[in-house]
Design goal:
Length: 137
Amino acid sequence: MTWTDHATERLRAAGHRPGGAGTRVIRHLETQSCCRGAQEIYEALDREVGLASVYRMLDRLDEQGLVQRIDIGDGIVRYEPSREAHHHHLVCGECGKVEPFADQTLEQAIEAVEERSGYSVVAHEVVLRGACADCRD
């Protein structure tokens, strides 16, 4: 089952009908490799879906735990589908590009902190800031 199918079923079970606009937002999110803000989604859909509809669908997806809210510290809340494959984010301070990265050694280090601290870590997000390859040149 795709994330789009899963999200659509969950929304319907909660009494929401995604409709044409909502379905386009859901499908767009599934195709992205990393997080996107509402304005980015709106523009990517060629403004054929109203910005209010984009925000409404993101809120519904968030309420159902179907998206993860990502805050990289620039005042823009970004969203990405909640999936089993966990990743973190690299942020270019020059051009604003956001890219995903995964690192098993980092995940093991976080698990070790959890064990040593006695905390039960339910979520974590690592954001690394710097300059991307294009901006570094």
